[in-house]
Amino acid sequence: MSRKSGLVPRAQYDPEEKTLLPEPEHGVKERPLPDLSGMTLAALSDWVTSIGLPPFRAGQLFRWIHGRLVKGFDEMTDISKSLRGRLSEEARITRLQSLETHRSEDGTLRAVLALPDGLPVETVLIPEPRRLTACLSTQVGCRMGCAFCQTGRLGLLRDLSTSEIVAQLDWLRGLPDCAGNRVSNVVLMGMGEPLDNRGQVFPALEIITGDLGASIASRRVTVSTIGLTDGIAEMEGLPGQYGLALSLHGALPETRARLVPGAPEQDLDVLAASLASYARVKRRRVTIEYCLIEGVNDDREHADALAAFTGRIPCKINVIPLNPVGTGGLRPPAKEGIERFLEWLYPVCQAVILRKPRGRDIQGACGQLGTSLLLASRGYAPERASGSQAQHGADPQAR
Ligand code: SAH
Ligand code: SF4
Q1: pLDDT of residue 328
Q2: pLDDT of 249-298, one tens digit each?
Q3: What stretches of 300-386 show up as alpha helix (H) in DSSP?
Q4: Ligand 2 center to residue 324 CA distance, Å?
Q5: Under a CB-based contact definition with an 8 Å cutoff, are residues 241 and 219 in contact?
Q6: Ligand closest in space to the Cα of 292
Q7: What are the residue ranges of CATH 1.10.150.530 in the chain?
Q8: Of the bound ligands, which one is closest to the alpha carbon of residue 137?
Q9: Ligand 1 pocket by C-beta < 6 Å: which residues?
Q10: pTM for the full model?
Q11: What is the per-residue pLDDT for 12?
């Protein structure tokens, strides 16, 4: 489907059959009401004023929606019954339902949530001793087509709206896991390329960091991208000090082009300059993600190129052994191969981290659970993570 068409697939997901039901003949009717859960505080102020309410109502609504996580207007008990009635006729709030949840032995929780039109999207909660991280999706599918990524195999089904991005976090925050245990960090490392949907993603960042809602410090929110340089430049202009993670995977031009063919900027010098500028403006290091693949990007020449690329940027490097699910025969190197690669980097790079596997027993890199359901529904052979190689795509160190 052309993403310019503006058409949204109307598929319905059947959790019993784990498949998408055929498109209803006349499409699903959407209520064309303004969605308050996708509005920044400023947009909400404009909206309340536009319907003749005093501006203080904006903060009140924002707090109920993203602070107290109500499901509907009738729970907003300090608002009169008549106004609640009026609000429910004139506006809506997006809340998501869970289709599947999987708990890993390390405590990682993966959830497949149903979007209002029935499409599934994946959201993950990662507990660690001193942080609780939510990993959110930004699109259903992705059009960037990275060689080893299941989500890329799907292509782009559609962008998520601001409210659907924030609603994933609000769903996680409503879990018992989060009771008295605030989500401390957010990473946009689920399904999709965040900077390919920045019109919806940037307001979501503002909502997530808003004082009256989840109130997560911008330094604890990380956007992962394959490097859309115009998007990085736009992020530079945002007020928050958001973290930036670049999925590099190859520092030699031909390797990068093979692994990340959809990146609009293939010139590695331009990419490095864009990252260095972001690090300088935001006064923080960026994270370089390097997915290690046997025989593709794991020899000395690749390590030297990675060291040279990152030498120009204030950064840390995360090396991630490939999770071999749906990767068309690509595999991670054996343990010795991974160690050898790290040994080449350690003496010459600023900071190198081998990423800890999270949720290893419950399905691969971020987005792979939701993606495998969608792929299966489209006639691809379902591939599930098998044992110890499976790895979570979120970056515990980028937070
Ligand atoms: N589109 C963005 C964010 C989502 S992908 C991006 O690519 O950065 C989140 C991370 O999962 C990326 O770093 C991606 O490279 C990684 N990933 C995807 N498939 C993987 C696999 N099979 N094994 C290991 N990491 C994978
Ligand atoms: Fe898209 Fe990221 Fe997957 Fe590449 S790795 S296809 S950019 S989700």
Answers
A1: 81
A2: 999 999 999 999 999 999 999 999 999 999 999 999 999 999 999 999 99
A3: 300-310, 335-345, 368-377
A4: 15
A5: yes
A6: 1
A7: 36-90
A8: 1
A9: 142, 148-149, 189, 193, 224-226, 247, 289, 291, 320, 322-323, 327, 365-366, 391, 393
A10: 0.88
A11: 53
Domain with CATH 3.20.20.70 in the chain: 94-392
**What is the topology classification, in CATH, of domain 36-90?**
DNA polymerase; domain 1 (1.10.150)
DSSP string, 45-82: HHHHHHTT--THHHHHHHIIIIIS--SSGGG-TTS-HH
pLDDT at 368: 65
The number of beta carbons lying within 10 Å of the beta carbon of residue 172 is: 25
Q: Using the mean position of ligand 1's atoms as its centre, give its distance from the Cα of residue 366 in Å.
A: 7
Determine which residue's CA is closest to atom 16 belonging to ligand 1: 393
* CA of residue 103 to ligand 1 center, whole Å: 21
| CA atoms of 381 and 169, how far apart (whole Å) | 30
Q: What is the model's pLDDT at position 180?
A: 75
Q: How far is CA 340 from the centre of its chain?
A: 31
Q: Which of 193, 228, 258, 265 is the best mutation target for the ligand 2 pocket, counting ligand atoms within 8 Å of the beta carbon and taking the most?
A: 193
CATH assignment, 94-392:
3.20.20.70
Q: Which residues of the chain have pLDDT under 50?
A: 1-11, 22-27, 382-399
For residue 228, the CA-to-ligand 2 centroid distance in Å is 12
Residues 303, 289: Cα–Cα separation, whole Å: 13
Best residue among 121, 142, 159 to mutate for probing ligand 2's pocket (most ligand atoms within 8 Å of CB) is: 142
